[in-house]
Amino acid sequence: MAAIVHGFDWPDRFVTGTVGEPGARTFYLQAQEGKRVVSVALEKQQSAALADGVDAVLDQLMTEDDNRYSIPDAAPDGLADDDPLADPVEEEFRVGEMRLAWDPSTAQVVIQASRLLLDEDGTVVEEDEPGEVLVVRLPVGAARAFAARTRTVVTQGRPLCPICEEPMDPDGHVCPVADGLE
Predict the structure, then answer these.
(1) 39, 22 Cβ separation under 8 angstroms
(2) What is the mean pLDDT of residues 40-57?
(3) Going by fewer Cβ within 10 Å, which terminus of the chain is more open, N or C?
């Protein structure tokens, strides 16, 4: 069976965003090209790792002689996207594995997010080929802007306890360090 590929070669928009309140947020990658919108759910940690990975790829390319791809060290002015996710947010799938690549022929970062497949018991099923995948190709400036926005979204969660550094709920927090539990 052939994989379902949601491909975006030059998306109008590619962002990380959330739905829900801090502590109960669902994270999404959302790609948009014209009226076509694809949203896939992922974990907060996956979002943070993706932002770090995008910047790491670009930072490595900047070290090449003459920076031949004109990699910026930060998102260029005018590329920041602070708008909310496009409504309605309809989850295509939940992300399992992600891959990151560089395409020198187009000077684009390539992000591939594959569907997480679980069996009846909730155990992850390993697939030889992903059944469904989101593939987004971003030019370098848009990739820097994506990484910056993603970091901002990740840090907008619950405040951290200054003692144990665990997230604090709005209705209270039992600190294991302050209570002598650690």
Answers:
(1) no
(2) 97
(3) N
Q: What are the distances in angstroms from CA 95 to CA 72, 87, 103, 126, 152?
A: 29, 20, 22, 13, 20
Q: CA-CA distance, 18 to 96, in Å (whole number)? A: 18
Residue 139: both structure tokens together: 């030019």
The region of weakest confidence among 5-14, 20-29, 130-139, 167-176 is: 167-176
* Predicted TM-score of the model (pTM): 0.86
- Tell me yes or no: is domain 4-155 CATH 3.30.70: no
What is the average pLDDT value for the chain, to the nearest integer? 91
The 10 Å Cβ neighbour count of residue 138 is 22
